[in-house]
Design a protein that fits this description.
By secondary structure, this protein is of the alpha+beta class. The protein contains ten helices and 13 strands.
Length: 372
């Protein structure tokens, strides 16, 4: 039996009474930011006197973070929250807002996990190329005991092979969560473009894009926030761990689809092939920024099995899902379109991934692929 959170058992009918109360002209704004480990998301809410019409009308804020220096000494730091992107709030509804924020330290320098600032600099440099991204975000549902949602408590479900895009109670485990997340993204204004169940039971995927430049990271981070909030309501967890279950079970990736204006035009295949050639020469540099731990997470996932390439070498091919970078079959036939970088892990920072790809494919500066 899957263990659910205590909060999921609270009376939701009682809650709905209060959520339906009028709030006058005031607006609740939830500030969202990336936490200290570069993976988790945080959020807190304040009241504004009126509904903001643009991001410029939302004031900066701050929060306090603690760093343990020793067993008895703790250092507290106050950091700035800088609003950068605004969405509708699918939980408290209009006129309330969700606001993604950059985090700045004292002196207004970017915090260690704020990779948006450096990513935006690169995207501004390559703006003329009109680079588009589409990210495939895989995730796995877990109970509060960290065991996959719906799996037998002391065993395993039937082997992989019939869960991907499956239909039926024994194949699509947790569909309610997926559908609620999809609707929440659409309401919020996220550029979500699709979803499907994945290869492992309780594993799902949603896709965001096409997004131009910095927009990819902004929309994906807020889509992740919405995923965790929806799961919170259902009393389960969503993990982006690239290999949540050991053995022959599939891992979770964050495949990145990429195109430029030249790639999308007639004869664009030559530019796709040129970009892949450049990526092949910086494989190790990219692997280091394709998960939050310098490639350690992807070592568990990129094994050459379960539709992955080996982490130790760069490979490319047409209609081949066991390579580092794939050219889709239709793109090969049309001689234009996009390519798919299959190396990013599910828990990657999309700012770092898109920055690295744009830098390698469109800029000459090798240093741009670093996460600084």
């Amino acid at each position: 039996m899957t263990t659910l959170s205590a909060s999921s058992g609270l009376n939701k009918t009682v809650r709905q009474h209060y959520m339906g109360l009028p709030q006058g002209d005031k607006c609740q704004v939830t500030y969202i930011w990336i936490g200290q480990n570069g993976e988790e998301l945080r959020g807190k809410t304040r009241t504004l006197e009126t509904e903001p019409k643009s991001i410029d009308e939302i004031p900066e804020w701050n929060f306090c973070t603690a760093h343990r220096l020793s067993l008895v000494q703790v250092c507290y730091n106050e950091l700035f929250l800088i609003p950068v992107c605004m969405f509708r709030d699918p939980f408290t509804l209009d006129p309330n807002k969700l606001v993604l924020c950059e985090v700045l330290k004292n002196g207004r320098l970017p915090a260690e996990t704020n990779h948006r600032m450096s990513c935006k600099k690169v995207m501004d440099q390559v703006k003329e190329h009109q680079i588009w991204f589409g990210m495939e975000q895989e995730y796995t549902l877990l109970g509060m005991d960290k065991h996959p949602f719906g799996w037998p408590q002391w065993g395993f479900p039937a082997p992989q092979g019939h869960y991907n895009s499956g239909v039926g109670a024994d194949r699509a485990i947790g569909r309610d969560i997926m559908e609620c997340h999809y609707k929440a993204c659409l309401y919020a204004g996220i550029k979500i473009c699709g979803t499907n169940s994945e290869t492992m039971p309780s594993q799902w995927e949603f896709q965001v894009g096409p997004c131009e430049g910095i927009e990819m990271g902004d929309h994906m981070w807020v889509a992740r926030f919405l995923l965790h909030r929806v799961c919170e309501d259902f009393g389960v967890l969503a993990t982006l761990d690239p290999k949540p279950m050991k053995g022959k079970w599939s891992g979770s990736g964050g495949h990145m689809n990429v195109s430029t204006k030249q790639m999308r035009e007639e004869g664009g295949l030559q530019y796709i092939e040129q970009a892949i050639e450049k990526l092949s020469k910086r494989h190790k540099e990219h692997i280091k920024v394709y998960d939050p731990h310098g490639g350690q997470d992807n070592m568990r996932r990129l094994t050459g099995e379960n539709e992955t390439a080996s982490i130790n070498e760069f490979t490319a091919g047409v209609a081949d899902r066991a390579v580092s970078v794939r050219i889709p079959l239709q793109v090969s036939l049309d001689k234009k379109g996009y390519f798919e970088d299959r190396r990013p892990a599910a828990n990657c920072d999309p700012y770092l991934v898109t920055k690295a790809i744009a830098s390698t494919c469109l800029l000459d500066d090798v240093e741009q692929t670093k996460g600084t």
